[in-house]
Amino acid sequence: MSSKIPKTCYQTSSPYEEKIGYYRAVRHGNQVFVSGTTSVDPRSSATAPLILYPNNAREQTRAALEECIRAIKGLGGKGAQDVIRVKMFVGCHDDCEAVGEGFRQVLGKQNHAASGTIGAAATMIVVNGGFINKQMLVEVEVDAIIEE
Question: Which of 7, 40, 112, 142 is the Cys-Cys partner for 34 at CB 3.0 to 4.6 Å?
């Protein structure tokens, strides 16, 4: 007899989630998979999505990672310390350093007595052609494991 592990979904008010029809994150067991996340202003409409921090790859990275952390918390996680892997997709090679800075500021290697170790395996890929919105400079995907 097998017991089914429930899948739990998390959504935000991002106009792209509504327009395309996906969830920001999905939890299955103790694993959380956060969809590609950018710095979309969640208050903007699906017909005219606005991007936060135009022309600032570092701040777009920070905003996207902070949204990912909110999703992990929304699915029962503690936050940044649950993150195990990050994939960063960068639209322009010249923005790689700024994206790396944003990553380091939010999820870079740290040890905290109260919250535990923060840090993740990470990959940065430069994509040709850019993203769904030309003002997007970076998109991140995050995987996390929530300790029970």
Answer: 142
